[in-house]
Amino acid sequence: MEKKQESLQCPSYIAKPGADLFGILGKDGKVEYLEEPIRIDKTFVEAAKVHEEKTGRSAEERFRFSGKCIEGGCSQWSHENSHCSLVGRVIEAMNKKVEAENSLMPCSIRHSCRWYAQQGALACANCNEIVRVVEQDRLNSLAA
Known about the structure:
By secondary structure, the protein is α+β, with helices and mostly antiparallel strands. It is built from 6 helices and 6 strands.
């Protein structure tokens, strides 16, 4: 299902100026996707750090960000397979199936998402409960 490689977005990006905020973690622990991503700036990042100091919750624990996939410059990149290895581990950890592509929640970055380009609808079906800290905790539990 690999799509054209140029300009693919990592859906597990960090909060830094220039990143796109595309989802907000709801009270139910699931990501609610925005209709359009919002490009964040230095002011957003600084406000998020102040919030983290007060609450202990980072921006990555409350929001989903995307940014340019840096491929081999990322520790999640499999040089052997030339793809992101994180999405496969997320699918394995979450173990959700998809009935049909049209049953997926709307997502403003799907058209350029690295995970969708590699795994299609299966990536999307397993995506809306992933935030960076939860993602790391679950992957660590798999390794144990």
